[in-house]
């Protein structure tokens, strides 16, 4: 190859130049306009095509605009063949300014990195086949695997869900698929020996081929779950003694009553009266201490 380049006026205007500013476009001038970090990889891609290792040349490089900023230029092309079907030394291609697309992609990448969870898109077909079509880089932090691994094998993520939760997760996805409804599920994952609570939310969209795609995010909810469990504990226990309160007692009584009515089983209700409790409490003001230590003694005798 001679290194000579023939381009139309659109190529010059794409970079903010005019044809008059270039006496004879050549490879060296192209290299001078390219970003130094992109020249080597572009040359390598071209050599792979010339040597027959790649069917065509397809590369995106940064090129310096006449105003000083960098443009993302996509170059596509191939060697043309002669009448006998043998490749010549003439390379024909097209250059396209894809700066807006690349800048938008870069902004999306920055956005996904700033969000507190894993951004993903997931699809499932009528036969149950499924795959992730996009997974943000934070999947490494959450699930301990790379985005590439998740795209190749979706079960790499599902296998990390606790056995107690996996069926519930799969059922929720199936229900979302059938109803074409938004998906929301809270479940636990085990990564590196540590169990974490996560919450997944996604918007479902039907595709023409019978598939459904979900676009959503997974976030940690360990603090929310700990607070939820603490609030539940406080609602059913006495703050001073730590023993179950009247609300818990009524709830358990209602469950046992429903179980008895449904299955015909029997249960016993025992009422215990503590002698002289008022006198002891009025004298020593130690009723929380008395109840806390008396309760396990009663349970031991009853069992």
Question: How does this model look, in words?
Answer:
This is histidine kinase. InterPro entries: GGDEF_dom, Nucleotide_cyclase, PAC, PAS, PAS-assoc_C, PAS-like_dom_sf, PAS_fold_3, Rev_trsase/Diguanyl_cyclase. Residues 57-110 form the PAC domain. The protein has helices at residues 9-14, 27-33, 36-50, 99-114, 139-143, 147-152, 155-158, 163-179, 222-236, 246-263, 277-284, 287-302, and strands at residues 57-64, 70-81, 87-97, 118-124, 130-135, 183-191, 194-206, 212-220. By secondary structure, it is an alpha+beta fold. The protein folds into four domains: 9-104, PAS domain (Beta-Lactamase), CATH 3.30.450.20; 116-226, Beta-Lactamase (2-Layer Sandwich), CATH 3.30.450.20; 237-267; 270-303, no CATH class. The strands form two sheets. It has a five-stranded antiparallel β-sheet with strand order 5-4-8-7-6, sandwiched between helices. A three-stranded antiparallel β-sheet has the order 1-2-3, with helices on both faces. The model has no long low-confidence stretch (mean pLDDT 86).
């Amino acid at each position: 190859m001679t290194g000579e380049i023939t381009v139309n006026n659109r190529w010059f205007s794409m970079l903010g130049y005019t044809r008059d500013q270039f006496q004879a476009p050549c490879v060296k001038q192209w290299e001078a306009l390219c970003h130094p970090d992109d020249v080597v990889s572009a040359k390598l891609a071209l050599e792979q095509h010339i040597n027959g290792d790649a069917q065509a040349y397809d590369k995106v490089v940064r090129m310096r605009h006449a105003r000083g900023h960098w443009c993302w230029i996509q170059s596509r092309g191939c060697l043309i063949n002669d009448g006998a079907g043998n490749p010549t030394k003439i390379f024909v291609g097209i250059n396209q300014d894809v700066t807006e697309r690349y800048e938008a992609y870069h902004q999306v990448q920055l956005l996904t990195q700033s969000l507190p969870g894993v951004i993903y898109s997931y699809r499932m077909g009528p036969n149950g086949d499924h795959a992730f079509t996009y997974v943000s880089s934070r999947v490494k932090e959450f699930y301990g695997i790379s985005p590439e691994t998740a795209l190749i094998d979706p079960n790499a993520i599902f296998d990390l869900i606790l056995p107690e939760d996996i069926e519930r997760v799969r059922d929720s996805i199936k229900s979302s698929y059938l109803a074409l409804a938004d998906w929301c599920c809270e479940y636990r994952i085990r990564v590196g020996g540590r169990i974490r609570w996560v919450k997944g939310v996604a918007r479902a969209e039907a595709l023409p081929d019978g598939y459904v795609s979900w676009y959503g995010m997974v976030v940690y909810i360990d603090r929310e779950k700990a607070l939820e469990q603490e609030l539940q504990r406080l609602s059913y226990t006495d703050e001073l003694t730590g023993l179950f309160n009247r609300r818990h007692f009524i709830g358990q009584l209602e469950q046992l009553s429903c179980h008895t009515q449904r299955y015909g089983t029997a249960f016993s209700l025992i009422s215990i009266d503590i002698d002289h409790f008022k006198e002891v409490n009025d004298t020593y003001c130690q009723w929380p201490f008395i109840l806390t230590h008396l309760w396990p003694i009663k349970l031991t005798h009853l069992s």
